[in-house]
Amino acid sequence: MNLPSPGPFFDVLADHGTRTTVHLSRPLDLADDDRTAYDSEGLAALVAETAGRLAALGVGPGERVAVIKPNHWDYVLLACAAARIGALPALISDRLPPETLQVLLKRLDATALVTTAATLRAAHEAGTDLTACVRRTLTLDGPAPGAVPVADVRGHRPPPPRRTAEDAPLAIMHTSGTTGIPKLVVHSTTTLIHRIVAAEARRMPVVSSRRDDTVAQATSYAHGRGLAWTLSVLWLAPREVVILDSFDPRRAEPVLRAHPPTTLEAVPSAFVRWQPLASSPDNPFRNVRLYVNTFDAIHPPAVRTFLAASRRRRPLWVQVWGQSETGPLTFRCLTRKSVRATGERHPTTRDLGRPVPGKARLRVVDPQTLRPVPRGRPGLVLARTAALCAGYVGEPERLRAKLAGGWFATGDLGVRTRSGRLVLLDREVDTVPGGSCVEIEDVLHDRLPEVMEAVVLGQANGLPLPVLVTHGGRPLDSAAWHRAVADLPPLDEPVFLTADQLPLTATGKVRRQELRDRLLGGASPYGTGHWT
After folding, report:
1. Per DSSP, what are the bridge partners of residue 384?
2. 323, 175 contact by CB (below 8 A)
3. How many Å separate Cα 283 from the centre of its chain?
4. Of the candidates 338, 218, 355, 228, which has an alpha carbon nearest to the alpha carbon of residue 288?
5. Which of 105, 263, 370, 457 is the most exposed, fewest CB within 10 Å of its CB?
6. Neighbours of 482 (CB within 10 A)
7. How would you label 8-30 residue by residue, b for 16+ Cβ within 10 Å and e otherwise?
8. What residue spans carry the region label Disordered (predicted)?
């Protein structure tokens, strides 16, 4: 498969006459107009024009360009524009705390920052000057102190696309940062395009995009999944692609109703927030044949709700587990039957399935000795894949510390079953003695419909602390709570928060370390944190 790299990608689509229409939930921050629909020619022109603006800003081949802005698909288009002139894009979510953004920018040592005046203002109000961390700053939404407004670089003729070496750095993306400062992950053309994107861009029965599909996506486009998904899906040329920039159901619903998807990929937190939409008789998911969730395991009630919402005879749910450093490692197909049982202590969505055939191998080892443990015994999950990243920016020793004889330590604890499936237990740093926080959270969601989010915080000295967000923000009935946890490991009394009190990453994951610091006074976790 002669899959082009991000730089010339949209030019190739336009030359091939790709007829996909891309619909946006709102206009791009990158664009000069209010368009919410593009064809391949329009996207190719926009990427080329943006490449010209970056060149006019003084960005040259091999230089790093940081992108920090509100979530939207133009993260991906900016990455393609930077790659087109041979620069190295680094995509960073604006949802990170300003002090974390400052740390990442210093590690990055970027030539330029592409951002918005609003993003700079928010950081400045928190005591952080992001422009001081780079040599030049470009704002997309108007003037700001220390920055060049986009109007000053319009109309610059784009240089011709540059070709970079297959193993040279192609793009930088960051990990979620649930346990601290995110890592900046470097991928090359070989690892990102040839190993990850190419595998998804092949036509496979059921799980690949079809030419008559309307494919919808809701994710954090600052993460590597946004770029990989864009390249693989558009290469398969579905009829329509729908881009959702927000997980807020009030903003997503009009777009989903205007363009009802036949396949839908979203982060777990988006599915959770959209459950009320899926429960309505005229829900916008009636024609979905394929759901995909990435980034994290998802709670069973959400899968159950969305599979029931489809009017297809046999809708399918594909759960993919992997990491920014590795790309997809396992997959599992879920059906209505496989999530039918409720309230039981069974793996359901914690059963992550088997390694991606021909792409990944897994091993479960003792965390202290790194020796393999027997099937059925918990241990640290190691992975071997040709898609492993090239390293971490500013932390060269960190990747070496996570490698053991060619195997990469994922930082997750799990169990390999006799049949070779992987059952997820916890992040090693988040584990609890003799149990699984992820299992407890799943069971709480299953048994307590009032719970919108359940987080269990393990600690070295003391019972695990359940932190609950309920629909409507009301505490649970005490009797219902004690019935729900009667057969679970001992837990502390729950703490109730509102949804806006829960610190989240750009993908909707809970920042557990921040929550631990706030509620447990920085109490040490039970796990070592050595593999994070």
Report:
1. 361
2. yes
3. 25
4. 218
5. 370
6. 10
7. bbbbbbbeeebebbbbbbbebbb
8. 145-165
Cβ neighbours, 10 Å, residue 336: 15
Q: Please spell the DSSP secondary structure of 434-467, one letter per residue.
A: TS-HHHHHHHHHHH-TTEEEEEEE--SSSPPEEE
- In tens digits, the chain (532 residues) has pLDDT values of 589 999 999 999 999 999 999 999 999 999 999 999 999 999 999 999 999 999 999 999 999 999 999 999 999 999 999 999 999 999 999 999 999 999 999 999 999 999 999 999 999 999 999 999 999 999 999 999 999 999 999 989 999 999 889 999 999 999 988 777 899 999 999 999 999 999 999 999 999 999 999 999 999 999 999 999 999 999 999 999 999 999 999 999 999 999 999 999 999 999 999 999 999 889 999 999 999 998 777 999 999 999 999 999 999 999 999 999 999 999 999 999 999 988 888 888 999 999 999 999 999 999 999 999 999 999 999 999 999 999 999 998 999 999 998 999 999 999 999 999 999 999 998 898 888 999 999 999 999 999 999 999 998 888 999 999 998 888 899 999 999 999 999 999 999 999 999 999 888 889 988 999 999 987 888 888 888 8
Structure tokens at 81: 């524009």
Residue type, 130: L
From the list 474, 469, 473, 492, the residue with the least C-alpha distance to 482 is 492
One-letter identity of residue 356: V
| Domains of the chain with bracketed CATH | 8-18+33-188 (3.40.50.12780), 246-427 (3.40.50.12780), 437-520 (3.30.300.30)
Cα–Cα nearest to 514, from 203, 50, 97, 136:
97
381 in helix, strand or coil? strand
Torsion angle of the four alpha carbons 230, 234, 239, 240, in this order, in degrees rounded to the nearest 10: 20
Question: Whole-angstrom Cα distance, residue 454 to residue 468?
Answer: 5
pTM for the whole thing?
0.95
**Distance, CA of 402 to CA of 478 (rounded, Å):** 44
Contacts of 273 (CB under 8 A, 6+ apart): 247, 248, 249
The residue type at 62: G
